[in-house]
Write a structure and sequence with these properties.
alpha/beta; Dna Topoisomerase Vi A Subunit, Chain: A, domain 2; 2 domains; four-stranded antiparallel beta sheet; four-stranded parallel beta sheet
Amino acid sequence: MSDLWYEKPIEHDRLDEMIDQLQAKFPKLKSKPRKKLLGDWVATYRYTDANGDLLAEKLRFKVLGAEGKVFLWRKPVLGGGWDYHMPKNPPLYRLRELVHAKVAVLVEGEKDSDNLSKVCNSHALAVTTAPDGANSWVPDYGKEFAGKKVIIIPDQDAPGRAYAKQAAKDITPHAVCVRIINLPVKDVSDYLAYHTPAQLKNLILGGNHDR
C-alpha cells in the first residue's frame, strides 16, 4: 500500500513515471488509456451532406507538451451551440464536391485531402477520405463513386494498404475504373514536402502507378 499512497501533492510531470513503476511492479494492474491533453488548435474539417449543409465538424489539435494530434468531433444543435460527439453515420469528407466530380481521389485523412485539393484545383476532380482514419471505411461509401474515375492513394503502412484494398473492392462495382497509387513516402503531405505539386499531379493523372 505504501507504493500507492503519497502524503504530498503529486507533481504533474511525475505521473507517467509513477504509473510505469506501478505497472512494472504489478503486471496485472490495469489502467484506463491515458488521455491526450489538447494543445493548440490546428484545423477545422467541415462535413456536409450532398447539398453542402453542415452535419458536423472535426477539430484537429496538437497534443499538449508532446508530438501527435488529437481530434474532436462536434455536431451543430438546433437553436445554437454544439453537441461534442461524433455523428452516427458520418459522410465522406468533401461530399458535395464528390457528388459533382468526374474524377475522385480517395486519400487517408483530411489534411491530405485538403493539401491535394489545392494542387488539383478543378471542379471536375474531388479529393475525399473516410471520416475517421483507415478503419472507418464502410462498404456503403462505395456507392458515392458511381460513374466516376477513381484513384486511391493510401498511407504506406499496413492499415493504409488494407484501407485501399477494401475501398477498391467496394467502389469497383459502381465506378468507371479504379486504380491504386502507392507513393514512395508515407502519404500525400509527405510527398508534397519533397516534390513539386506538378510532379504529384502528373503522378495522379497519368504518371507511373501500381495497380
